[in-house]
Amino acid sequence: MAEHDLIEAPNGSASENTHANAAAVMAVTIGGRKLTIEEVVAIARHRAPVALSADPAWRARIQRGADFLRRHLEAGATVYGVNTGYGDACVVDVPMELVEALPLQLTRYHGCGMGQYLDDAQTLAVIAARLNSLAYGFSGVRPVLLERLADLINHRVLPRIPSEGSVGASGDLTPLSYVAAALAGERDVMFDGSLRDVREVWTELGHEPLTLAPKEGLALMNGTAVMTGLACLAFARADHLTRLAARLTALSTVALDGRAAHFDATLFEVKPHAGQAEAAAWIRDDLTGREDTPGHRLQDRYSIRCAPHVIGVTRDALSWVRRDVENELNSANDNPLIDPDNERVLHGGNFYGGHIAFAMDSLKVAVANLADLMDRQLALLVDVNFNNGLPRNLSGAAPARAAINHGFKAVQISSSAWTAEALKNTMPASVFSRSTEAHNQDKVSMGTIAARDCLRVLELTEQVAAAHTLATVQAARLRLKIDSATPVPAPLQAFIDSVTAHSPFVDEDRALESDLRALTARIAACDVLSDYFGGSRA
User: Fold this and answer.
1) C-alpha distance from residue 341 to each of 3, 55, 60, 66 (Å)
2) 365 — phi, psi (to 5°)?
3) Comparing C-alpha atoms, which of 520, 441, 472 is closest to residue 376?
4) I need a labelling partner for 375 at 20 to 30 A (CA). Which of 102, 180, 233, 418 fits?
5) 3.20.20.70, 1.20.1250.20, 3.90.1150.10, 1.20.200.10: which CATH number matches 230-533?
6) Residue 66's closest CA among 142, 137, 136?
7) CB-based burial of residue 261 (10 Å sphere; 0-12 exposed, 13-18 middle, 19+ buried)?
8) Is the preceding omega at residue 13 within 30 degrees of 0, hence cis?
9) Rounded CA gap, 154 and 58, in Å?
10) Hey, which residues does 25 pair with through a beta bridge?
11) Model pTM?
12) If you classify domain 4-223 with CATH, what class do you get?
C-alpha cells in the first residue's frame, strides 16, 4: 500500500480561512500500514494532513470490531470499562441503561490536568499517535471516531491538553481525556488562532459532536499516545542535534587550528560502534582537504578528539529508540482489546508505557552529554590558555577598544548554566513508579514524565548548541583574521555564511539574546543543517 495519498486540502467554511491556499498536499495515510516517526513529525510540524485508508477490507475490519462489541454486550457479556466501572471499580456493574452515558463520565472526571498546555506540534503528534493506534483495528471503535480524529488534525482543531497528570499506565488517561472531550463537544480548543468552544467549531465544520459509543471514551484515553507523540518529536530533535554537534566539532577544529587526523577512518574501523563511525565520517567529510599544521600540539583535548565517541553514543541509542517508539506507535495499546476476527475480548495491560519511558530516560542522558560536549568545546574557544592564539573571550574588538569588550564571556557562562540544568534533569523518571487508584494501578511507567523531561533536556541542549554555534562561527572568522590562508572546507564556509546572515560578527559587545533565541528556534525546528538531510527533513 502506498505511504501517501494526494488529496485535496480540507474544505468547508471554517477551513477556507486557514487551508484554502493549499490546493493539493501530500497526506499521510492512516490504517493498514505502519506509521514512521518522520510522518508523525510531518503531521505535527509541517501541516501534513492525514487520509484514512481507502482499502475496503481495512474499513470493514474496523466496523466489524464495533459491531462485535455491540452484539457481545447485547448477549449479556461483561466487558471492563464498558458495562463495569473503571480501574478499582471494575467490580461495579453498570446497568445497561447507563452504559451509553459511561464514556462521557470518564472524560469528565479526568478533566483535572495541570501544568503548561502542549503546544500545537505536540498536540498534533499526540492525536496522530492515538489515531494510528485505534486504526490498528483492535479497539472496537466505529469508523466515524477515526474520521473525527482525522478532522482534528486536518482542520487544526487542537484540544488544550495540560502536560501534567499522567503516570503512564493506564496510559495517558487525564491528558487524553481532553481529546475525547473535544470529540464529544466539551471543553475549549484552539482553532484558527483563537480559543473557541469546541461545539461551535464542530458546527462551523458541518458536524455534530460525537456521542461516544460504549468503550470509545476508554479507547481514546487508555493508551500511550501522549508519551509516544512527544517521543516522536524528541527523536527528531535529538537526531538533528547529533548532526549539529558533529558540524560544530569540525568547525571548532578549524577555529582552534586542531588536527583532522583524530577522525581518520581507521580509528573507527578498529572500534566498530556504528554511531561513532558515522559521527566521525561527518566530521571527516566537513574537514576534507584540511592538512594538519606541523609543530602544533600532538593531540587535541578530549572534547575535540573524542567528540565522535560522545556523539556516537546518541547515534547508536537513536537506532533502538526508533525501534521502540515506532513499535509503540504502531500498536494497539488500550484495554480491553477487541479481536474482530476471532470475536474475543482480551483484557490486558498494553497501556503500560515502559518502553517509551526507558527510551526517553535513556535519550535524555545521551542528549545531555551532547550539551556537556558542546559546552566544553565552547570553553576551549573562549579561553586564551587553550584556544591557540584566538582573542580572549572571542572578542572581535579593535585593539583600542579591547579593554572594555568581553565578547562571548557571558555566553559561555550561560551555556554552562544551561548544561548544568540539562544534566540535572537526567534523573530517570521510570524508576519513580507510584501506586495509585486504590492499588489497582500499583506499578506504572511514568513514561509521559520521562518524555517531558527529555523535551526539556533537548530545549536546554539546543540553547547550548545555539551559543556554541555563534561562538564557533565567531572563532572561525577570527582565525581567518589571524591567518587568511587558513583552509575552510566548503561545507563549513557555507555554514559560517548561513549563521552570519542571521547573526553578524561581534566586533563591539552587544546583547545576543535575540540572536540566541532565533537560532535556538531554528535548531529546535531542525532547520539548520539542510545539507545533511538532502533538503527533506522530517
Assistant:
1) 25, 17, 11, 12
2) -65, -45
3) 472
4) 233
5) 1.20.200.10
6) 142
7) middle
8) no
9) 21
10) 7
11) 0.93
12) mainly alpha
- pLDDT, tens digit, 9 for 90 and up, residues 331-382: 999 999 999 999 999 999 999 999 999 999 999 999 999 999 999 999 999 9
Q: How far apart are CA 29 and CA 27, in angstroms?
A: 6
Cell 556523539 appears where? 311
In tens, the pLDDT along 251-297 reads: 999 999 999 999 999 999 999 999 999 999 999 999 998 887 776 77
**In angstroms, rounded to a whole number, what is the distance separating the alpha carbons of residues 313 and 303?**
14
What letter would DSSP give residue 93? B
Quick check: 205 and 191 in contact, CB under 8 A? no
Closest CA to 397 of 474, 486, 288: 474
Any bridge partners for residue 30, and if so which?
A: 52
> Distance between CA 334 and CA 348 in Å, rounded?
9
Distance CA 210, CA 207 (A): 9
- Residue 39 vs residues 134, 137, 374, 509: alpha-carbon distances, Å: 17, 20, 30, 43
Q: Give me the half-sphere count of Cα atoms (radius 13 Å) on the Cβ side of residue 402.
A: 9
DSSP 51: E
User: What cell numbers appear for 115 in the block?
Assistant: 501544568
Catalytic residues: 80
Which triple of cell numbers denotes residue 472?
A: 564557533
Name 158's bridge partners. 190
Residue 196 DSSP label: E
Radius of gyration (Cα) for the chain, nearest Å?
26
Q: In what order do the strands lie in the sheet with 50-52?
A: 4-8, 24-30, 50-52
Q: Is the pLDDT of residue 538 over 50?
A: no
Q: Could you tell me where in the chain the CATH 1.10.275.10 domains are found?
A: 4-223
Output the CA torsion 398→403→404→409 (10° steps): 90
CA angle 333, 334, 338 (to 5 degrees): 105
